[in-house]
From TrEMBL:
Protein's name according to its UniProt entry: Isomerase
Superkingdom of origin organism: Bacteria
TM stretches of this protein: none
Organism: Kitasatospora cheerisanensis KCTC 2395
Xref: InterPro entries: 5-COMe_2-OHmuconate_Isoase, Tautomerase/MIF_sf
Alphabetical list of PANTHER family matching this protein: 4-HYDROXYPHENYLACETATE CATABOLISM PROTEIN
GO function term, MF aspect, one: 5-carboxymethyl-2-hydroxymuconate delta-isomerase activity
Length: 120
């Protein structure tokens, strides 16, 4: 834990360093919310399109969701969200165009969460 999901729009597919950003997210979780490195799981989901607002301007979107166990204080969660947004531009390439980004941090029930590794 944490489980991190990064949704990003199609327009960023060729310029977004997803692996680099995923590793950065995992390091930030370890540093700022005391996550265990081996527990950090980050996945990326490519989305064809996002519609933002009511005008015709087209933005790319990066939406980052963290699921974490309860117990972190609001300041630690806010620091994580701010650090994630600050780190993102480094991984978007030289000219990604207009991008909007969001970070959401939600708590998941520790008692019902399970994790397993298979194979070798």
């Amino acid at each position: 834990m944490p489980l991190i999901t990064v949704d990003y729009t199609d327009r960023l597919a060729d310029c977004f360093d997803r692996r680099g950003f995923g590793l950065a997210l995992n390091r930030l979780a370890v540093k700022l919310i005391d996550a265990k490195p081996e527990g950090c799981k980050t996945r990326f989901r490519r989305t064809e399109e996002a519609v933002i607002g009511a005008d015709a301007e087209t933005f790319a979107l990066v939406a980052i969701d963290f699921e974490i166990f309860p117990g972190r204080n609001p300041q630690a969660k806010a620091a994580l969200a701010e650090a994630v947004l600050a780190a993102l531009p480094e991984y978007l390439g030289a000219d990604p165009g207009a991008v909007q980004a969001t970070v959401s941090i939600a708590e998941t029930d520790r008692e019902s969460y399970r994790s397993a590794a298979f194979g070798g």
